[in-house]
Specification:
The chain has 300 residues and is of the alpha/beta class. It has a single domain, classed as 3-Layer(aba) Sandwich (Arginase, Chain A), CATH 3.40.800.20. The protein has 8 helices and 8 strands. One of its GO terms (biological process) is epigenetic regulation of gene expression.
Length: 300
């Protein structure tokens, strides 16, 4: 299994006490090293600014560059001098992982995350939509149908925005009721259409209940849509010890992530579909490595 990573991802500066910190990746890398896990590392693919226009408006890209150059912004999305460059590198890592999936499952270990970045907006720690960029790029060149499965605590409002009118992509998101958490105004079932499926998971849902909800929906829609590629937006902020962003879906057993991954792998193999994943949320440093490997080990 290949992990696409660059040490430059640690350079995105967010400030002391900020949950989306370089220590997230450090914790995962430490777990990999200490447990001598069977992975190899790969470098991100080079991305030009014009390549990003496949999902983002040109004016939006110029705005990101300006905010980064002038170090403006705050709240969930601080900007430092290299924020845009590092975000672009993260998008390139997602694309490399998607390309690697021709041979085997690949994971883009990146920051900043991406699924809250839409065509012309940023938010929720995200600037460029990494997984959307990877999927859209391959649809331009070698694929006809792709599915994005999002298991982050929060709805990927940016991913939905980008693909809402693009029926080449099936977006299937499992997330906490957006009436109770970020992004507040997106991710409701009333927004669903033929290729957008928001599955709202209520607070206090148990591991067994979550897995049942996941299996019923994923098996149904992947069988109907028959994607050639399955990209997974993986967030570990659903874990019960992860309270940095107000989670209420309390997955108690790390093995639950392995079971989710196993379902994805099984269906992908039956369809002969490629699979890759991109890191989104997950802020509890003590459990990130274990949860990361629980998910990834399903694809060995």
């Amino acid at each position: 299994m290949k992990i696409v990573y660059s040490e430059r991802f640690l350079e995105h500066e967010t400030g002391e006490g900020y949950p989306e910190s370089p220590q997230r990746l450090v914790a995962i890398l430490k777990y990999i090293k200490e447990n001598k896990l069977p992975v190899s590392f790969d470098k991100p693919e080079d991305v030009k600014e014009k390549d990003l226009y496949v999902i983002h408006d040109e004016a939006y890209i110029e705005r990101l560059k300006f905010l980064s150059d002038t170090q403006q912004g705050g709240g969930d999305n601080p900007f430092s001098m290299n924020t845009f460059k590092i975000a672009k590198l993260a998008a390139g890592a997602a694309l490399k992982a998607a390309r690697n999936s021709k041979e085997d499952f690949s994971f883009a270990l990146v920051r900043p995350p991406g699924h809250h970045a839409g065509k012309d907006f940023f938010g929720g720690f995200c600037y460029l939509n990494n997984i959307a960029f990877a999927v859209a790029s391959l649809l331009e060149s070698e694929l006809k149908r792709a599915m994005i499965v999002d298991i982050d605590q929060h709805h990927g409002n940016g991913t939905q925005d980008i693909f809402y009118e693009d029926n080449r992509v099936f977006y299937l998101s499992f997330h906490q009721d957006p009436g109770t958490c970020f992004p507040w105004n997106s991710g409701f079932e009333k927004e669903n259409n033929g290729h957008i499926k928001n599955v709202v998971v209520q607070p206090e849902t148990t591991d067994a209940e979550y897995l049942k909800i996941f299996e019923e929906n994923f098996s149904k829609y992947v069988a109907e849509f028959k994607p050639q590629l399955i990209g997974v937006s993986v967030g570990f902020d659903t874990f019960y010890k992860d309270h940095s962003c107000g989670n209420a879906i309390d997955i108690r057993d790390s093995a639950t992530y392995n079971k989710i991954g196993s379902m994805i792998r099984k269906q992908a193999e039956e369809l002969e579909a490629r699979t890759f994943a991109v890191l989104e949320g997950g802020y509890c440093l003590d459990t990130l490595g274990q949860n990361f490997w629980s998910f990834c080990s399903a694809f060995l």
